[in-house]
Amino acid sequence: MNEEEQQLNKVLMLFYFGYRTFTEKPDQIIEKYGIQRVHHRILYFIAQVPGITVNDLLSILEVTKQALNAPLRLLSEKNLIKMVQADYDKRYKLLYLTEQGKQLESKLSHVQREQMKTIFDSLGSNHQKAWIDVMNALAKVRPGQQQFNTQINKQRH
């Protein structure tokens, strides 16, 4: 293994452990609610795009309808989300966070924002920009990210 491969292996290892640190506190919080990380992702994206359709959420998360059905049902049963029939077409279900869902999602995102803020504050804005550039390079090929950007742009107009 050459020096470049060794350095890249270190990057992979750091990415793995960094992700574990990033998800650890939210995982501890959601465990108390009897839900898992997949539910956290769903709550996050519904919070970002209130009234998102199930189909658009499927596209953003890049999962099948079967993979999303049970987590959505559980979140609904736990009164964290509500599904509303669209006025414009009864075939579409729009997803919203309930008050309880908003509080939980806010708590989860706050923990992660604070983690990132603490790190960026200690390292400086040039490191934050570099990190954002790396994450953008990783995410730009994802159809889910493209769909998310489309949804956000719709909301702004």
From TrEMBL:
Highest taxon of the lineage: Bacteria
Keywords noted in UniProt: DNA-binding
InterPro entries for the chain: HTH_MarR-typ, MarR/SlyA-like, WH-like_DNA-bd_sf, WH_DNA-bd_sf
Domain HTH marR-type: 5-140
A GO MF label: DNA-binding transcription factor activity
SUPFAM superfamilies for the chain: Winged helix' DNA-binding domain (SSF46785)
Pfam families: MarR_2
GO biological process terms on file: response to stress
Alphabetized PANTHER family for the sequence: TRANSCRIPTIONAL REGULATOR, MARR FAMILY (PTHR33164), TRANSCRIPTIONAL REGULATORY PROTEIN (PTHR33164:SF44)
Protein name as annotated: Transcriptional regulator, MarR family
Species for this entry: Sporolactobacillus inulinus
